[in-house]
Specification:
alpha+beta, Alpha-Beta Plaits, 2 domains, disordered C terminus
Length: 279
């Protein structure tokens, strides 16, 4: 029985140590509470479109740098007004979702002729390894659906007539997962309010011998550039093709009227799919 007081003393000391640890040592990692709060607001899709491995990693980055949300916004959050309001409160900033929202557009009108039979793996990335694909234009959408498979919203489909990918703007959240799937970089994220786009990515500076553009391909006449009075059109020396400065565009449509190939279209009031089929 003599050992009982010793055991009691040890128990008391251990209890005291546990108490001191509980009182003095932080119960949570610094910043974790804020990270968890932000994470609860995010959609939890863990899609990786923000460039992080998941929503929790994105929340952790936002807790350390709230301004990151304007540079690398979560498109799913921006499309939910309630989440936007909660995120503003959590980060202590004001967000203009309309300015940050993006939509995907595929720069191809889908009119390029098929020049050979392709029998390999039915993916765009695989087909592009053989002379840039099996269509006459080396920058044509191959239409094998890599981008459609990557879209979590089902916003991309393949037009059976044109054999080209098309985007339903009403479903697109601008997550950007489709962008990395296109081997020819035909997909671009543009401001959600964008109206004028060029359905061509033909780069004459990187021509493949014997390959031609389609009937709707940009012929580099620069008439659209000359017609624009608002500096919304500029010439890319790197690509050898016209590009649109969206923030300067007033949708005056003078560029559309000047384009002989009808490669410029207005996305307002219609889905890109409807516009392509109308051709």
């Amino acid at each position: 029985m003599a050992h009982i007081p010793a055991l009691v003393g040890i128990a008391v000391i251990c209890g005291l140590i546990i108490y001191l640890v509980f009182v003095k040592v932080p119960q949570k990692v610094k910043g974790l509470e804020k990270t968890e709060k932000i994470n609860a607001i995010l959609p939890g899709a863990n899609c990786g479109a923000c460039g992080r491995p998941g929503c929790f990693a994105y929340a952790q980055a936002l807790s350390q740098d709230p301004d990151l949300v304007t540079k690398e916004p979560c498109s799913m959050t921006l499309n939910d007004p309630e989440r936007v309001a909660q995120l503003e409160d959590a980060l202590g900033i004001t967000l203009d979702a309309s300015e940050l929202s993006r939509k995907a557009v595929i720069h191809c009108a889908g009119n390029s002729e098929v020049v050979c039979d392709y029998c390999g793996a039915m993916t765009c990335k695989a087909a592009a390894q053989i002379l840039g694909g099996y269509k006459r234009c080396p920058y044509a959408c191959l239409g094998l659906g890599d981008c459609a498979a990557a879209c979590p919203q089902g916003a991309i489909s393949i037009d059976p007539e044109k054999d080209v990918a098309v985007v339903d703007q009403s479903k697109c959240t601008g997550c950007g997962l489709c962008v990395a799937e296109c081997p020819d970089n035909l997909i671009e994220l543009i401001p959600a309010g964008t109206k004028i786009v060029l359905l061509c990515s033909y780069q004459p500076l990187k021509d493949i011998p014997g390959r031609e553009k389609c009937d709707f391909g940009c012929i580099r006449c620069r008439k659209c550039l000359k017609a624009c009075e608002h500096e919304a059109m500029e010439w890319s020396k790197e690509k050898g093709i016209v590009q649109i400065v969206q923030e300067n565009c007033t949708q005056c449509h003078k560029c559309l009227e000047a384009c002989e190939r009808h490669g410029l279209i207005d996305l307002s009031g219609a889905h890109e799919e409807d516009l392509i089929k109308a051709r």
